[in-house]
Structure formats: structure tokens, C-alpha cells
Amino acid sequence: MSDTHHTPSLASARAPLLDQRAKTVLWLLAMVMLWGLSWPATQVALLSVPPVWLAALRFGSAGICLFIFVALRGELRLPPKADWPIVISIGFLQMMAFTGMGMIAMTTTETSHSVLLAYTTPLWSVVMAFLLFRQAPTHAQFGALAVGLVGVGLIVSPLEMDWSQPGVLRGALLLIGGAVSWSVVILHVRRHRWQSSPLQLAPWQMLLATVPLASIAFLTEGAPVGINFTPELIQLLVFIGPIATSACFVISAEQGRRITPFAMANFTLGVPLVGITASVILLGNQLSPVFLTGLALVTLGMGLAARAARGR
């Protein structure tokens, strides 16, 4: 009789845990889809909005949404002194530099190339960990880096990119530069002792990115008076900013803490795959055998890098 009583109680205890895991997976899959789809959406928006202004509009609108969201939760306050280094790091390097350089690059680079090169961050994290902290790569990390960089070399080579076209090589270098900037932030995040939650700091980071982006845009691209805010463009801007930036940041902050960093890294690998697939379906990008080979090598390299980091 005791067995018949214990079995239902164990099952009932596991059910909420399984439900929570399922919800977390569904939320993170939604995040990956939205982040991936934001790349072709950005490519279309760039036909109407200059790149640096688009970056400023993205973080300006997303920042407003997050200020309201965090305030409604009763958690809006100035970051403590101990958190300002990470606010500056994420605001300037990840948001301003990564996004600004990426959007400039996308004016001359196909979406499929852009999203893949931008998400080579795990590879550069291995390099920057050595350069900044003298953290020598393990054999597994070195192998992952070698595999991934061969893929990057294929994608940026004349076999895949037409270097004679204006801005093509510059765009590839900007995307890699953005990925390197983001990798530095990842290393900083791992070492930072958080006083506030990432979600509490996010609005301030976006504000810190928006102000210089808008200033640079005004100086280099002029006042945004020539932008024609059609209903279609407004829909794209709402998707790129409040939805694919602020909403996804909330999902990442709230649900990402429920899984391991290794699992989160594997989820993030889906973003370029979704972005590339969407660019083929929605924008008509064509994937050559060279690109597909480079994609396979880069994805394998990033997966191996994530696994090696987990082991370390």
C-alpha cells in the first residue's frame, strides 16, 4: 500500500518542474526565433534608415520599453558604483560598437554573411581570454578555434565574397570587429560581481548606447528629417527595437538563469541559423557550397568552443 501512495506523490512533485522546464525551453526558442528574424528585418529597414540612426532608434525604443517595464516591477534605480563598469562595458562594447558596426556592415554585406560573422563571438572569446588574461587555450579550445577560423576564412575569402565590390571587405572586418567587442564583454560578464540583476542594469546600458549612437549619427548622417516613416517602416522598427531587443532581453534575463551557460550557448547557436534561413526565404539570399562549408565549420567550431568552456 505504501508504494501506491508514494508513486503519485513523486509524479505530482516532478510535474511542476517539468512544466517549468518546458516553459523555459519554449521562451528561449521564441527568443532565438525573434533574434534570428531581426536580421532580415534590419536589412529591410536599412533601405529606409541610415545605419547608425537605425542602431540609435533600436536601443532608444528598446530602452524606453525597459525603463517602463523595470519601473512597473518597482526595481528602477541608479546602478550602484560597483556595477558601473559592466554597465559601461555592455553599453559601449556590446550594444553601441557591436550593433553600430554590424549595421554599417549590413549596408554592403548580405544578411546571411552578416549574421554568421557577427555570431562568431565564442571563437574570439578564446583569443581574447589569452590576450587579456593570459588564459592559455586548452587543446579542446585550440581545436575549436582552428575549426571555426577555417570556416571564417572561407566565408570572407574571395571564393565567397566579391572583394572588388565597394565596402564588401570593410563590412566583413566590421562584423568581425563587432564580434571581438562582444567577446570582451562576455569575458567581463563572467568575472563581474553583480550587485544588481542584468535586467535592472539593461535600461541604463541601452541609454548609454543610444546617446553616443544618436550623436555619431547626427554628425555623420545628418538630422533624420529625410526618413519616411511609413506604416511598414514603423512596424519594422517596433519589431527590431521593443520586440526583438527589449522583449528578448527580458526573456534572456529571466529564463536564461534557469539553465546552464553551456545550454544557453547552444540555444544562441540557433540565432545565426534562423537568421540565415530567414534571409534565404524572405530576402532571396542564395547559399553557395563555399558558404555552406564555412557555415558548417563555424557552427562546429562554436559548438566545440562552448563544450570546451564547459569542461574548463
Automatic annotation (TrEMBL):
User: Topology relative to the membrane, per the entry?
Assistant: Multi-pass membrane protein
Cellular localisation: Cell membrane
User: Where does this protein chiefly localize?
Assistant: membrane
Membrane among keywords: yes
Domain of life assignment: Bacteria
According to UniProt, the name of this protein is: Drug/metabolite transporter (DMT) permease superfamily protein
Which GO cellular component terms, listed alphabetically, does the Swiss-Prot or TrEMBL entry include? Answer: plasma membrane
Naturally occurring in which organism (per UniProt): Ketogulonicigenium vulgare (strain WSH-001)
The answer on whether this UniProt entry bears the keyword DNA damage reads no
What single Pfam family name could you report for this chain, choosing any that match?
Answer: EamA
Q: Which SUPFAM superfamilies match?
A: Multidrug resistance efflux transporter EmrE (SSF103481)
| Protein keywords | Cell membrane, Membrane, Transmembrane, Transmembrane helix
Q: Which residues form the EamA domain?
A: 24-156, 170-304
Query: Membrane-spanning residues where?
Result: 24-46, 52-72, 84-104, 116-133, 140-159, 171-189, 201-220, 232-251, 263-284, 290-309
